[in-house]
């Protein structure tokens, strides 16, 4: 005996051309939820950005800071033929990272009123079998009043190979000379904030490995009152040129900006 189930109607299929057209229509009409929510408001906002217009403003002038604190990094790379042996980073070298030329004779002055060191970062690599060690020691001493001095410390890192650099980052405390604010004046401009020593593990002159030094500064621009008095004559005589300076007699070469 033959048992038959419920009859099923054959499904209709659209021609391939119509099916493809339907898929294209669905794709072209699809809009992400974010766009669907915005609708006409999104279009009007876009148009408003391209039209000069007047909008509402505060009823009274709000308070604001006219002299903001900004951050900037200066990067230095060691020269292969100049030894870095207990070289001092002085206040003068800090002033010289913010110079602008103000006379055709090459006189340059800092364009900042004050600066502080926010962070010191070091990377040192080996040369063949010679590991490199970098040491930094805060060493500011208050010779006049003996009351604002850096704590004796030694921070060091060493490379493991040519491929594995030694690295360290020092964050100075704000209540120490190394991390506090310094005015760009002539007062104690020769004072040393820290000294740096690089031991290249016996590599000969000219084969010293590369050490990279990043100094991250915070600074306040000189936009209120006159300059604080520090000045220096540089080789650049183009008025308005801005830049920084190499460190330690060319032992560390300033990267990527004008060298004055």
Would you give an account of this structure?
With 260 residues, the chain is of the alpha+beta class. 14% of the residues lie in helices and 30% in strands. The strands form three sheets. Strands 1, 5, 8, 9, 11 and 14 form a six-stranded antiparallel β-sheet that branches. The chain has a four-stranded antiparallel β-sheet with strand order 2-10-6-7. The chain is globular. The mean pLDDT is 87.
Query: Helix/strand-derived class?
Result: alpha+beta
**Helical content, roughly?**
10-25%
- What is the end-to-end distance? 106 Å
Oligomer: single chain
SSE pattern: HHEEHEEEEEEEEEEEE
Please give the CATH architecture. Answer: Sandwich
Query: Main sheet?
Result: 6 strands, antiparallel
State the CATH class.
Answer: Mainly Beta
Quick summary:
With 260 residues, the chain is an alpha+beta fold.
Task: Name some characteristics of this structure.
260 residues, alpha+beta, Jelly Rolls, six-stranded antiparallel β-sheet, four-stranded antiparallel β-sheet, 3 helices
């Amino acid at each position: 005996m033959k048992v038959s189930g419920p009859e099923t109607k054959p499904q209709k299929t659209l021609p391939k051309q119509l099916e493809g057209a339907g898929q294209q229509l669905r794709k072209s009409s699809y809009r992400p939820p974010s766009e669907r929510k915005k609708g006409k408001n999104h279009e009007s906002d876009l148009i408003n950005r391209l039209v000069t217009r007047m909008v509402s403003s505060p009823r009274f002038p709000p308070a604001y800071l006219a002299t903001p604190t900004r951050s900037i990094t200066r990067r230095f790379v060691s020269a292969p033929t100049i030894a870095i042996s207990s070289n001092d980073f002085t206040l003068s070298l800090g002033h010289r990272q913010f110079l602008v030329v103000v006379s055709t004779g090459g006189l340059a002055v800092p364009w900042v009123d004050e600066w502080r060191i926010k962070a010191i970062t070091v990377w040192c690599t080996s040369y063949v079998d010679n590991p490199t060690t970098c040491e930094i020691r805060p060493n500011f001493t208050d010779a006049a009043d003996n009351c604002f001095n850096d704590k004796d410390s030694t921070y060091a890192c060493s490379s493991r190979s040519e491929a594995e650099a030694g690295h360290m980052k020092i964050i100075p405390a704000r209540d120490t000379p190394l991390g506090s604010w310094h005015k760009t004046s002539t007062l104690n401009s020769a004072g040393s904030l820290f000294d740096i020593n690089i031991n290249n593990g016996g590599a000969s002159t000219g084969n010293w490995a590369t050490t990279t030094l990043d100094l991250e500064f915070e600074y306040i621009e000189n936009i209120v009152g006159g300059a604080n008095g520090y000045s220096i004559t540089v080789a650049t005589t183009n008025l308005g040129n801005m830049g920084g300076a190499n460190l330690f007699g060319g032992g560390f070469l300033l990267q990527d900006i004008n060298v004055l």
